[in-house]
């Protein structure tokens, strides 16, 4: 993807991989980069450094994902690349983790990607362009594997429009590896 003059949103952009993505997209000449993080100071620091905008959000609720999209579109215009990179580690454990902890993991590691797709794919399809980039960790402990669900959910949430411009010789079913 050519990033020059594109509008990019990076969740989890205040640190780690998200920060590196935001910095690279800005260096590649993106028109605007929205740095989204639950840590306000971190989001602001990265946004100031790259000339982007900071958005503070808790992406464990669909309303927050929609708000992030609305704010980024309001400032820069239609989103060309949405990098769904936010993630959490805590709470750690297994069967002893309370339901609320499991739900929080599920919401940030799976549902936030689904909510972003619901919000963005119809407009991207109308424009005939746009990308969703979902980050999932291969380092997750065996008891916490929402990224396996993410892979399947990503393929299904974008549906046929995700593969519409891809040559049929390169298409794979959403369940193939």
Automatic annotation (TrEMBL):
CDD domains tied to this protein: SDR_c (cd05233)
Name listed for the protein in its UniProt record: SDR family NAD(P)-dependent oxidoreductase
Taxon lineage: Bacteria, Bacillati, Actinomycetota, Actinomycetes, Micromonosporales
InterPro entries: NAD(P)-bd_dom_sf (IPR036291), SDR_fam (IPR002347)
Keyword Oxidoreductase carried by entry: yes
Organism: Paractinoplanes deccanensis
UniProt keyword Oxidoreductase, yes or no: yes
Superkingdom of the source species: Bacteria
Family according to the record: Belongs to the short-chain dehydrogenases/reductases (SDR) family.
Region (Disordered): 150-177
């Amino acid at each position: 993807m050519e990033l020059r003059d594109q509008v990019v949103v990076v969740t989890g952009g205040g640190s780690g991989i998200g920060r590196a993505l935001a910095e690279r997209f800005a260096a590649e000449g993106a028109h605007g980069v929205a740095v989204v993080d639950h840590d306000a100071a971190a989001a602001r620091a990265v946004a100031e450094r790259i000339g982007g905008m900071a958005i503070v959000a808790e992406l464990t609720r669909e309303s927050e994902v929609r708000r992030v999209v609305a704010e980024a579109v309001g400032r820069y215009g239609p989103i060309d690349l949405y990098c769904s990179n936010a993630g959490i580690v805590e709470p750690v454990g297994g069967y002893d983790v309370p339901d609320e902890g499991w739900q929080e993991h599920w919401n940030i590691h799976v549902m936030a990607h689904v909510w972003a797709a619901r919000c963005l794919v119809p407009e991207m399809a109308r424009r005939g362009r746009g990308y969703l980039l979902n980050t999932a960790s291969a380092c997750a402990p065996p008891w916490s594997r929402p990224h396996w669900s993410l892979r399947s959910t990503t393929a299904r949430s974008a549906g046929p429009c995700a593969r519409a411009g891809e040559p049929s010789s390169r298409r794979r079913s959403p369940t193939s590896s």
